[in-house]
Amino acid sequence: MATAPWHTMKSETDVTRVESITYLIRGERVMLDHDLAELYQIPTKRIKEQVKRNLKRFPKDFMFVLSEQELTNLRSQFATSSSGWGGNRVSPFAFTEQGIAMLSSVLKSERAISVNIAIMRAFVQMRRLVTSNKESPTNELSDLVRGANNTKFWIRSRIENRRKFRVS
Known about the structure:
The protein is an alpha+beta fold. The protein has helices at 11-20, 33-40, 44-53, 68-76, 97-107, 110-167; strands spanning 22-25, 28-32, 63-65, 93-95. The protein has a four-stranded antiparallel β-sheet with strand order 1-2-4-3. The termini are far apart.
């Protein structure tokens, strides 16, 4: 199935696609070099080359290399091996949102620019979803606790009433 160009995709599709290749590593939401390369339609090697040529643009809070343990943990989340994982001799680069934004300046292609715009919009949308969901579960939890407390009160009152009738 061919996918539409990033600049023509609907926001919901962008978010779903980006979410599916976004990982939480070291407390950061990141995307891996091979996933980004697929989106940019370039070899992963090209991303690595450009990053190495422009290391000053990629501080540790923009990009980091996965440790062996992180790579093992990430691989274990997938039941089958995919082409993105098979045969890698070098650990993948993990890019934070800021690192992804910086990539468009070093890759210098129209595709990189349009993909990055879509990714940035998807990250903003994901933040909105997280923020809106933070409020909802809290309210639902409060309602559940309140309901449980009411139920406990009702049960206790029934038990007390039965005790009163047994004593009489």
